[in-house]
């Protein structure tokens, strides 16, 4: 009975993967034959099945790019980049898509400690930094146990030094994990989907216009009040935009 259940699970999983592969191939065929609208529909059908991959978002971004859908192409390239950071093909096509935008803002340079800490913390994901901290904690505990239970002075000295180093490294990796989580992972980004959107100084229609944004611009979401989102641009400017005018990444 146990093997029968396992066989059934494997059978249906195989069918599911086959159907998804068939859909992906179908979408790619639409793209190759320049039927970009149908390619978009088929790629999005795959996404509706909760199947995400950098290749899927990348191809969907390409199809939207061919249709001159600025916001949609940038959005999907950004989603692909989240799953495959530093991918050269994605970065290149994202740069092409960004050239279609109306808005162009200078990015505020990262200064001093923040610049180097952000770069260093991006070396690994938050999960990897956390795992390193846990490993150091386990090794530190082991070194401590050996230190207390051994009677040989030389061995005690070695494991005392090893434990001290592991403790420092564990605290360091834990600190980096915490920094990355709070300063990078917790940031919420969004893409402007409205052709033109007036950003307000306050979260209401009666307030003054702070500036105007156009489709494709990437923003950082800071806060939410009812139908409004407080956003910040790469140049440091901030304001309130209608939540339906943007799409969170």
From TrEMBL:
PROSITE patterns for the chain: TPR (PS50005), TPR_REGION (PS50293)
Keyword Membrane recorded: yes
Superkingdom assignment: Bacteria
SUPFAM superfamilies linked to this entry: TPR-like
Domain SH3b: from-to ranges: 187-249
Keywords of this entry: Membrane, Repeat, Signal, TPR repeat, Transmembrane, Transmembrane helix
Spans of repeat TPR: 20-53, 54-87
Membrane-spanning segments: 127-149, 158-179
Pfam families: TPR_11 (PF13414)
Annotated signal peptide: 1-18
PANTHER family to which the protein is assigned, alphabetical: CELLULOSE SYNTHASE OPERON PROTEIN C, TPR REPEAT-CONTAINING PROTEIN MJ0263
Annotated protein name in UniProt: Ion channel protein
């Amino acid at each position: 009975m146990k093997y029968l259940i396992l066989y059934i699970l494997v059978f249906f999983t195989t069918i599911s993967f086959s159907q998804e592969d068939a859909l992906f191939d179908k979408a790619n065929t639409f793209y190759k034959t320049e039927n970009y609208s149908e390619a978009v529909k088929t790629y999005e059908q795959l996404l509706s099945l909760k199947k995400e991959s950098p290749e899927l978002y990348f191809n969907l971004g390409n199809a939207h790019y061919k249709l001159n859908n600025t916001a949609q192409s940038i959005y999907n390239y950004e989603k692909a980049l989240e799953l495959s950071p530093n991918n050269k093909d994605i970065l290149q096509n994202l740069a092409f898509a960004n050239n279609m935008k109306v808005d162009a803002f200078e990015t505020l340079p990262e200064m001093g400690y923040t610049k180097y800490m952000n770069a260093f913390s991006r070396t690994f994901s938050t999960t990897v930094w956390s795992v390193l901290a846990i490993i150091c904690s386990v090794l530190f505990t082991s070194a401590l146990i050996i230190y207390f239970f051994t009677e040989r002075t030389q061995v005690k000295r070695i494991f005392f030094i090893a434990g001290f180093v592991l403790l420092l490294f564990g605290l360091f990796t834990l600190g980096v994990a915490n920094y990355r989580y709070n300063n990078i992972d917790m940031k919420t980004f969004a893409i402007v989907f409205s052709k033109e959107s007036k950003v307000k100084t306050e979260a209401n229609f009666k307030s003054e216009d702070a500036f105007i944004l156009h489709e494709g611009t990437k923003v950082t979401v800071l806060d939410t009040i009812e139908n409004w989102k407080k956003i910040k641009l790469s140049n440091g400017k901030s304001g309130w935009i209608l939540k339906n005018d943007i799409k969170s990444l």
